[in-house]
Amino acid sequence: MQMNRVDCYDSTGRLRVIPEAWFVYLFFCVSSHPAGLVKIGVSKTPLFRLADIQTNSAFPMQSGMYVVAGTESCAKRIESEVKKAWAHRNTRGEWFTFTFGDPFVREETESIINAVYYRHVRRPLRWSRVSPEQLQACISLKCRDNFEEHVRRRKMGLVRRRS
Q: Nearest-5° angle of CA 138, CA 143, CA 145?
């Protein structure tokens, strides 16, 4: 098991170590309508989450971003507040529509996320971006892991061969 060690600051400004970090992510998807789709969520492994979403999505994922939120409860509070602020853009579940080329929309979106993040984490927001190469690498790893798990389950007799 891989441990994520993240240094975060509490509400009093003191440094604390969080051995199991949680992340808030935004994933961008090219869709059939003029505005693009954005998915917001939380995960301990945002790159593998992106690979999961990509392999189960009807639309190709264009890119993604994630940021350390610290604890699970902190990440979920940030996600919840951003979802409420974006409620008028909600299409379904955690998917929201955005016109990426509109500077007003971009500025409004960034200011909402920055404010919510700072309120909970007490430091400026710094996104880690996911490149197309990273996305493809994660999808490949995820597919390989799923295949290996399937083979293991078949050997144990948990999966029947199709006839």
A: 95
